[in-house]
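We emphasize that the prediction below concerns an isolated chain of 284 residues; any contacts that depend on oligomerization or on bound cofactors are therefore not represented. The input was used exactly as deposited, without trimming of termini.
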Amino acid sequence: MTLFKQLLINPNGRDFVVGDIHGNLARLEKVLDYHQFKPESDRLIAVGDLINRGTDSLNTLRLLSEPWFFSVAGNHERMISHHRQALTRRQLTADERRKMASIGAQWLLDAYDSLNEDKWADLITEIMNLISQMPLMIQVGNGPDAVGVIHAELPDWDWYRSVTRLERIKKVKFWDQPRDEPSIESILWGSSQIESLMNGEQNDRRISGIAWVIQGHSVLTTPKRAGNRLWIDTGAYENQPSRGLTIAELGSVLTVTTHFRDLRIRTERFNLTPQPRFHSVLMS
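Result of the prediction step, given as a token string:
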């Protein structure tokens, strides 16, 4: 098995891509209700960082067991996997504990401290098994209308060359090793492209071989588009009125809706022309 996953066109319903959830399961459920999500026919693909910082990381991660839910890995899943051996053996150092607390993994530390040996062994095995099934790239569909989903930033301006890099790395080997392969590190950690855009540099260069690449990782006030790249992490875990959870419905036009904490809802529609159309409403 490789770190790339292909999803065929959904013949029965709609496909959505959601930004970094970070354990905010209740918020996600409200957003799905608003969009009348039907798990028997629709699918949800996440850009990673399912866990940490929010109030229900474990059950958010457990969505990976649902047949309608898919997610690439984010750097937060990767950071947990970095400590696989120490967590499994209950041998975290003081420095490792501080690092985990700093990334919002107190939920895991609490279980580490409170559960007996058998329950802890069951829990950490479940968590690591769920994380280790996550790919780093997901492609929805085939041909010119296909949509790619990643967490942070592609290492190459060609989608298929990036896929080829991943296919050289076995999934089991990747999740077992404590360090990232340099040739694909940007998929989990990269931010140079969005930083240049936020600094005012206009770069509408497109990723070749794919219609859209949807990604998260970098927190924004609203989704940001450049060429056929779209960033949709709007800070779901931050307790600020201007932060929220963004979800994109796939189609010939991307319908991208941000659900803010102050109950505003902002919808943008993106096609391959430069400017989106949008409107805002107040959630009832």
